[in-house]
Amino acid sequence: MAGPVKTEAVVLRSMRYGEADRILHLYTPARGRVSAIAKGVCRARSRFGGRLEPFFRLHIELHEGRGELLTVTGAQTIEGHARLRSDARALDAAARACDAVGRLFETSEPHPGVFNLLCRQLSLLDQRADGGRSAGGWSAALAFRLKLLLAAGLAPQLGACASCGEGEHLVGFSGAAGGVVCSACEAGSFALGEDAHRFMTEALARSLSEVPEAGDPALGQVERAIATTLEHHAHLRLMPAAAR
Q1: What would you report as the CA-atom Rg of the chain, rounded to the nearest whole angstrom?
Q2: What stretch of H or E contains 187?
Q3: What is the pLDDT of residues 10-49, one digit of tens each?
Q4: For residue 133, what pLDDT is reported?
Q5: I need a labelling partner for 121 at 20 to 30 A (CA). Which of 10, 84, 136, 159 fits?
Q6: Order of strands, edge to edge, in the sheet holding 170-174?
Q7: Does residue 208 share a domain with residue 129?
Q8: Predicted confidence band of residue 132 (pLDDT cuts 50, 70, 90)
Q9: Which of 79, 102, 125 is the last residue before a domain boundary?
Q10: Helix 138-151 to helix 88-104 angle, to the nearest 10 degrees?
Q11: Number of domains the chain contains
Q12: Rounded to an integer, what distance in angstroms lies between the CA atom of residue 212 and that of residue 189?
């Protein structure tokens, strides 16, 4: 319905449009992903200042007309994540998190849990930023993606073989089957070690602030499990969860 829209939003992406405008991709709790144009935002005296940049959490006012793009009419900052912006690794992790949300949840279907999850991840990245040494991290990024799979209804089966239901001898992971598989059903799967299996189970059960520990070989298996799940069930390929 055309008219004014007031909502919270996270700026996923901001792209210059013409000489003075920007196109924004926003993620909102009640309207999912929306796109909007911010007119005149690139001018030196813009009333929006710098608050329409990626990763800002805002109270935003929009006008919905007949076209696909909404128009930004007002914005107030809730969280600007200033420390995150001074840390290259945290900045990269935030970009990857926003890209994953924008692509996996690209429709206007409301997912308030996903909005809250993204806000929490950005807040944690901001808290952990310390000049490029430890912000983000591969394990934290993978834990976030596992939470996104859960929100999308794509969480892998981890408690028993996804093919036959066997609860023991779980030795592999099959994206096609949707989870771990036993030694009798491992054809077409790849090896999934105990550490990777434990990481996935614990990451799904814990909060984002309590990321389980695992070595690089296990995290590599976890990343592959997430990627094959998305390829088979969402027909989607995301960029790697973290720069390494």
Answers
A1: 20
A2: none
A3: 999 998 888 888 899 999 999 999 999 988 777 756 667 6
A4: 46
A5: 159
A6: 179-182, 170-174, 190-191
A7: yes
A8: very low
A9: 79
A10: 20
A11: 2
A12: 24
